[in-house]
Each structure stands twice: as C-alpha cells, then as structure tokens.
Amino acid sequence: MDFTLSDEQKMLRHGAERYLAENYDFEKRKALIERDHGFSESQWRQFAEMGWLALPIPEDCDGLGGTFVDITLMQESFGRRLVLEPFATTAILNAFLLDGCEDRELRSSTLRSIAAGDTRIALACSEDESRYDLARVSTRALPGDGGFSLSGRKIAVWDATCAHQLIVSAVVDGESAPSLFLVARDSGGVVEHSYPLIDSTHAADYDFDAAPATLLIASGRALPRLEHAVDRLVLARVAETLGIIEMVMEITADQLRNRSQFGQTLSKFQALQHRMAEMFVEVQEARSILYRGIAMIDAAAGVREAAVSAAKVVATRAGRIVGAEGIQLHGGVGMTDEYPVGHYFKRLLSLEKQYGDMDHHVKRIARSYRGAESRAR
Q1: What angle do CA 230, 298, 108 make, to 5 degrees?
Q2: Which of 158, 193, 218 is the C-terminal boundary of a domain?
Q3: Read out DSSP for 280-296?
Q4: Please, which residues have CB within 8 angstroms of residue 342's CB and are 6 or more apart in sequence?
Q5: Domain span at residue 57?
Q6: What is the pLDDT of residue 162?
Q7: Mean pLDDT across the chain, nearest whole number?
Q8: Residue 151's closest CA among 132, 172, 133, 176?
C-alpha cells in the first residue's frame, strides 16, 4: 500500500493544521473546558462548513466519501491541538454504523444530518461486566407498536453529553446476539449520569427503562458491524495519539532550546539529547504501526483485529514514554495546569482506556494468532 500523500491529502492536512493553529490554540481550548460540556457548537458548525464532518460520509448522503487515510490525517491534526469536539465518535464510529442501517431512509437522513453538523451521536455498548467484550450484552429490547423499548444499563459512553442521539446495543427477546438501536438522548425512559474525565472531556452512564428505540441493524449483522466500527475508531485514536506525541516532542524541544543552565541551553546537554532521541524513535514506531493498521482496516476480521490491536499496544506504549518524558524534561512546570504538556499527557491517559486497554489488546493479538495457527493445521 502506497502511503505517499496525494495533493488533495496534503491540502487537507495543511488546511486542518492551519485552521486549528489559528482558531484552536491552548488558551481557547482551556476556555472551552470551562463550559458545561467542554464543547463548542460554533466550532462544530465550522467543521461542517469546511466539509470535515462530511469527509467519512458516503457520497450518496451528501458526504465526500473520504478514505480511511483521509480520516486519520484529520485525527492526527486534532490530536496535535487536543480538539474537544466529538468528530471521531460521531463522524467516524457512528457514521460507519449508520451506513449499515437496514432502513435506507433512516440511514440517508441521519448521515445527511451528521454531514450538515445538525446531529451528534454517541455509542452505548459497554456494560458493568462486559470487559470490552461487545458480545456480552444484558440490555434487553422488547418489540412493541411501531418500534422497540429498551431496558438495561450502559456505562462509559464517550462524548455523551454533547450528543443528540445514542446508538445502543441490546438483545431482543428470543435472540442470542445483540442488535443495534437508535435512541433519542432526551426521550422518556433515559436517565443520564454524566461525569468529567481526567482529560476534561465528558462521558456518561445510562439507565434505560422502557426507552423508545428504533432498530438500526438486526441480530446477525449487528455484532460484526459493531466490531468493525470500533476497530476503525481505535485506529483513528491511534492517529490522534500520534498527533499528540508529535506535539509533545515539539513543545519539549522548544522548552529545551529556550531554557538555560550552567551558561548554556538545555538542548546542548547530551543526556537530554538522548532522551529526545528516544522520544523520536517512539513517535516513528507509532507512525509505522498506524500505517500497517490502515493497510488492514478492511481485511478479514482476524487479520484486522490483530493489526488494530498491535497499533493500539505500540501507540499506548509510545504515549506513556513520550508523555512522561515530556513532563520530566519540562521540570516542575510540566505538572502545572498552565503548561500544555500536562494536558497532552492527560489526554493520552484517557485514550489509553477507550475500547480496550493495553492488556485487552495484547490478549486479542494472542487470540488472533492462536486462531490463525489452528486454521493452518
């Protein structure tokens, strides 16, 4: 697979980085954090006007039909500026789920609404005992007049507090595998328990009590689609992690060039140069494993899962090393709220736990290779 960027992709990346550098600096982001949801409606509308929200949307739904490389370029730029808006959860994760909706009219209208910036959607697929297993679902769906009603509990719903709708996994009575349903966040029977995360974004837990729901994808097709969608999000978060650690390297290098001790700048000390070199190696390894994941994102499930999990493991390790080194090389000020490096480190900690921590993904890699060996015999 050729990862040389096309002229259009170079323009996309340059445009995103230029806009965010001018309109999403550290102080403006800190101001957004103080708002109720840590989110800017005006920025979201601007993302829509620039076509960013339409990038992952199919062309038949007023989208641009961008490739996954295009999507990861955006995510890398968002990581560099610690963008708070829920681009990944709405436009990457849930737009992919909606594209598989069996009701083609519902699919078209909702995807068009996302592209226009009118709709934001969060995914509610985790439960108290699921442990990242998307098939372990206890939430129930009962059929009724004109739809379904959901009862159960979901936890750790990322970007929930700025969403209009939820996509919820639930099991219909008489079936074993989950289906996917669309639920209005403000509908009756939906109780939200929101909370801030370490990186100043927000998540929520939900209790559903006969909440009205619309079927999106029925049992049999829902779980494979959900697993594929989550893998796409995990890899997009790897791209975001790459953008973060690149930026940590840059601001740390600036810190070393601008501070002096014993009559010379810190960047002249060989021990600190070695630590910066180690950070550089980690960044390059994260980029390489991201490219490998992108090449296999639409491969067979076993191959895709192993590649995505490998990317998550390598990027998580890189984030730990680069983030910690960045704080260390800043000295005591690296721990203060006024310096950006601590905010980047907190974002890395949050991303590390989304849809599987390092232990989970190491185990998934092992399962994938055991499965491949069994098939080879």
Answers
A1: 70
A2: 218
A3: HHHHHHHHHHHHHHHHT
A4: 327, 334, 335, 336
A5: 7-115
A6: 93
A7: 93
A8: 172
Q: What is the pLDDT of residue 34?
A: 80
Residues 127, 88: one domain?
no
| Cα 147 to chain centroid, rounded | 30
Domain boundary among 115, 136, 164: 115
**Which pLDDT value is given to residue 374?**
60
pLDDT in tens, 276-319: 999 999 999 999 999 999 999 999 999 999 999 999 999 999 99
Q: Which residue has the tokens 């998307």?
A: 134
Neighbour-count burial of 11, counting CB atoms closer than 10 A to its CB (0-12 exposed, 13-18 middle, 19+ buried): exposed
Q: Comparing C-alpha atoms, which of 273, 131, 152 is closest to residue 206?
A: 152
The CATH number that applies at residue 142 is 2.40.110.10
CA angle 325, 32, 354 (to 5 degrees): 55
- The answer to whether residues 80 and 244 touch, using CB atoms and an 8 Å cutoff, is yes
Q: What pTM did the predictor assign?
A: 0.94
Whether 188 and 282 share a structural domain: no
Q: Name the residue among 344, 286, 293 with its Cα closest to residue 81.
A: 344
Contact 80, 89 (CB under 8 A): no
If asked whether residues 125 and 111 sit together in one domain, one would say no
Where the chain has pLDDT below 50, the residues are none
